[in-house]
Amino acid sequence: MGYGAIMSPGVPATGTTLSHARFLSHHVAAPASALPLFTATLPKHVLIKPSGLRRTRGAVLSAAAGVGGAVLQDAAATALVVGGAYALVSTFDNLTRRNIIEQTLSRKLVHILSGLLFLASWPIFSASTGARYFASVVPSLNCLRLVMNGLSLTTDEGLIKSVSREGKPEELLRGPLYYVLVLILCAIVFWRESPVGMISLAMMCGGDGIADIMGRRFGSVKIPYNPQKSWAGSISMFLFGFLVSIGMLYYFAVLGYIQLEWMQTLERVALVSFVATLIESLPTTGIVDDNISVPLASMVTSLLVFGY
Ligand SMILES: Nc1ccn([C@@H]2O[C@H](COP(=O)(O)OP(=O)(O)OP(=O)(O)O)[C@@H](O)[C@H]2O)c(=O)n1
Ligand SMILES: C/C(=C\CO)CCC[C@H](C)CCC[C@H](C)CCCC(C)C
Question: Where do the TM regions start and end (predicted)?
Fold first, then answer.
């Protein structure tokens, strides 16, 4: 189905929508001047009578306007969110430079806010089937930014300071890069129709992020099988990851993108949060980054319990 399929949020595509979309995907945006040429290309048996031609012309023009409107909306939304991403990193870079917040806390707040604000921005994109690809441009541009700076092809001191532990450019090619790749995956594969991407991002950004913040501050009692992690960090991850997941699901449900049976959903999300927290608490010996293991565990568990 081409970009032209205008899908209303929360409303599954109907036969009419699909046939309309299929019509558009083959003939979309035929400008009025091209219409006679366009009908000349139609097989005789489907050539439309003059009276029908006017109806079709109106349908094609209105549909083309719809497609054009959706593309404009998605382009504007993309520009807005790209600007938001730059503004977020710059803000925390300034706060760190002025010693208002310490670098470690700044990095974790960027970790928490970037993905959750990106997720929260999804409803400003259009209802068309191509909207998710426009949305994925935002993490893709940041992926490019991370690679360029990680390879020292460019030097964005603000970015490096905001997202690295020790200010080394090569650090951008691990945790931060995996992070934006997960954002791209969730936007394209799961988008607004499935709870899986929403929960996975809530756990990676909210859960894993808060574990670090709370664990560093209150994590005196360590987990028996992993002295690098603490009960305070893991319990915080479970609770905050669960709450942020439920909050995001409610946000998208209120906007009509998903419909959930909430008692069952609470149980399911609690299970996802438990599994993700357990995986995050395991000793990784630096091989598998949390920005891979946590969202992956969340996706697999969510797919098993939600089924879509
Ligand atoms: N369940 C957890 C998770 C984290 N921490 C604390 O937070 C620190 C960093 O946690 P970690 O998840 O390992 O962060 P990293 O992924 O290494 O950091 P970054 O995300 O910055 O790469 C740990 O050393 C520990 O002090 C904790 O106590 N309990
Ligand atoms: C420090 C991070 C991960 C390490 O665990 C996060 C890296 C964040 C990226 C550099 C920036 C990502 C921006 C988002 C794709 C878009 C945010 C938009 C929103 C409106 C602020």
Answer: 59-89, 109-125, 172-191, 235-258
Domain co-membership, 198 together with 282? yes
Pocket test for ligand 1, best of 171, 212, 216 (most atoms within 8 A of CB): 212
Report the alpha-carbon distance of residue 207 to residue 239 in Å, rounded. 8
Which of 142, 162, 190 is the last residue in one of the domains?
A: 190
Are 178 and 166 in the same domain? yes
ipTM: 0.96
Our answer on whether the CB atom of 295 is closer than 6 Å to any ligand 2 atom is: no
Please indicate, yes or no, if residue 39 is contained in any of the structural domains. no
> Is 8 a pocket residue for ligand 1 (Cβ < 6 Å)?
no
Q: Which two tokens stand for residue 1?
A: 């189905």
pLDDT in tens, 166-178: 999 999 999 999 9
Tally of domains within the chain = 2
What is the 3 state secondary structure string of 222-245? EECCEEEEEHHHHHHHHHHHHHHH
Ligand 2 contact, 175 CB (< 6 A) = yes
Ligand 1 mean position, distance from CA 302 (Å): 24
Classify residue 298: in a domain, yes or no.
Answer: yes
Nearest ligand by distance to the CA of 115: 2
Q: Where are the beta strands (DSSP E) in the chain?
A: 222-223, 226-230
291 lines ligand 2 (CB under 6 A): yes
Mark whether 73 and 185 lie in a shared domain: yes
Q: Is 88 in the pocket of ligand 2 (CB under 6 A)?
A: yes
Domain residues for the domain of 151 are 69-190
Using one digit for the tens of pLDDT, what is the confidence trace for 57-75? 887 777 777 778 999 999 9
